[in-house]
Amino acid sequence: MKRLKIVIPISIIVFIFAIRILDQNYGEDITIGIRTLIALGGALFSGVISYFLFPGNQNQKQH
Length: 63
Known about the structure:
This protein is mainly alpha-helical. The chain is built from 2 helices and no strands. The protein has helices at 2-26, 32-53. The longest helix has 25 residues, at 2-26. The protein starts with a helix and ends in a 10-residue tail after the last helix.
């Protein structure tokens, strides 16, 4: 549960920045549906990466 407190905001931030950058650079070339799919893919990918990179429970004893 502690991981999701970090993963969800990271995914949302990546999604917002990806939409902004795609809109600024490729606004006329790419439709809004494709831009949304690209940004959603980036957000999901960054969420998966951050889920595995950030530690879950640091208080547990390691065996």
